């Protein structure tokens, strides 16, 4: 059945699990815009809940853009949620009108019930550090990429994996997984990237999933942002795709050069989720139909792996 909003498109999303409930938080924008390419500057964060990942009940919206003049007054974009000390922390991407939405930063909202959210302070928490990451104007790239934070706890510290761009490498292949660490989810220290540049212009909506003896990085990249270096290795042209790449350690390095496509190309921004029966499945947003028209809906679960090619099973 998936989740279709009659009056809004739905695309990137992330989940929080509370007991038997799956809470999905998703980017949404009015279908009345007409052109789906306009949705990014009209994005808010919607919220729905399910017990089976098939049937969803829509709840009140979680987050809107900030007040005019704030650092996130254009739109609220992709993030992740983690629970700590009986509080939920929602990390999200924001952009500002003052910079024409071209500089991305990471902010925080918190909640005790996953329903009512309060922004943490008037400023973003994590910003790109020019020692390692490309800043706006330092290349021909049209934006300062620093978005889609995936926050997880590894050992005694919290780690944020972030869609970013390196200061090194060919301009069309500088996409990397940015990295920041924290002891308390509020104060963050930015460090060097966890992957090497060269293969993609950006690695969107990252997710880290653990295996028995290794880890898997999930990310997405549209066809137009696949680098010339990677294109030269392909038998056919690139597609909009969800990718998976291996890592022997949760803090990298991630073998992005070895990334393979993990889902059919009409599905994008995929996440691996452990379903109520314990099996792992993909969720993704349905990007287009057979005619190529934009759809903007949440898919039903897709078995992992989606084909019969076999593969390892991740763990929580």
What does this molecule look like?
The chain has 1 helix and 20 strands. The two termini are 25 Å apart. It has one helix at residues 228-231; strands at 8-18, 21-30, 44-50, 57-58, 75-84, 87-95, 105-111, 118-119, 146-154, 157-165, 175-182, 188-191, 204-210, 215-221, 241-247, 260-261, 267-274, 280-288, 294-298, 302-303. It is 1% helix and 43% strand. It has 316 residues and is mainly beta. It has one domain (69-303): 5 Propeller (Tachylectin-2, Chain A). It is globular, with a radius of gyration of 18 Å. The protein has a 4-stranded antiparallel sheet, with no helix packed on it. The protein has a 4-stranded antiparallel sheet with strand order 5-6-7-8, with no helix packed on it. Strand 13 and strand 14 (215-221) form a beta hairpin.
The CATH topology comes to Tachylectin-2, Chain A
How many DSSP helices? 1
CATH superfamily: Glycosyl hydrolase domain, family 43
CATH class: Mainly Beta
Major sheet: size, sense and barrel closure?
4 strands, antiparallel
CATH architecture: 5 Propeller
Overview in brief:
By secondary structure, the chain is mostly beta strands. It has one helix spanning 228-231; strands at residues 8-18, 21-30, 44-50, 57-58, 75-84, 87-95, 105-111, 118-119, 146-154, 157-165, 175-182, 188-191, 204-210, 215-221, 241-247, 260-261, 267-274, 280-288, 294-298, 302-303.
